[in-house]
């Protein structure tokens, strides 16, 4: 059905005071560490599901733009880093590299990640705090990057920024909370991205797709898949999308999202299917704030204690790009709660 949108605020709450954090200067370990025991996770209500998948599904799996899916730093040197200086050096290397993050690393601002990198947390205690990761710069692209099994906290800007035409990016099994701006933003002509099995919590703005209403260069780009993520009490942007077609949102768990679940704007096309919305008054918006309406096709979602979705128009079928299987939406809360976040991937 199509509903008349309710009035919406042009600005949103939840931004935290900007703060600066000192850069830690210490060493790097050149050999991998063994995986640690998984820490207790209040999200999991059953035994944690451990993923041994080394390749994404969704848009990051697509052979396009000269890249055969997303392989990250496969074939490159493996290093284990314990400081911001070592992480920045490895992430900025011109060579393919598998970078293992061990323990808690405090950074300042954004660390630039360039092409052909896998950044993977060791065990269940890897954390990047105080800053975040930016994929690529205007002169050094951040293509073919994998980020897995890391806790991101207290970023002074975005926790993860996929930007500057980065393509083939897989963001999987991370825990993102308590940042300053967006926890995960995908923008500026980036493309072929999969966001899977992440937990977003203790924050307002979860995930933006599309830089601004005044950046039409994103048209024809920003193809993103979101699947099996837990948007746990975050207020908005799960995702909020401009221009992209299609963005595929399936089998995600939405719980207690105060402002809205998903928003499609500026003629973006979203396929929303097999998701579970719990206590979300506005699960899907067509248009938001000052942004023009987008398009949404929704099918086989569950709305428990939630409002009715807005829909409009037609959307490109994701199956024209890749195969996928949608879990029954009633199973999503248990499956996602048991499987998201850190400590649940093979080491």
UniProtKB/TrEMBL annotation:
Q: Under which name does UniProt file this protein?
A: Pectate lyase
What the entry lists under Gene3D superfamilies is as follows: Single-stranded right-handed beta-helix, Pectin lyase-like (2.160.20.10)
* UniProt keyword list: Carbohydrate metabolism, Lyase, Polysaccharide degradation, Secreted, Signal
- Do you know which SMART domains this protein is assigned to? Amb_all, PbH1
| PANTHER family referenced in this protein's UniProt entry, alphabetically | PECTATE LYASE 18-RELATED, PECTATE LYASE 21-RELATED
- Where does the signal sequence lie? 1-40
Origin species: Micromonospora cathayae
Check the record and name the InterPro entries matching this protein. PbH1, Pec_lyase, Pectin_lyas_fold, Pectin_lyase_fold/virulence, PEL, TAT_signal
Q: Where in the cell is it found?
A: Secreted
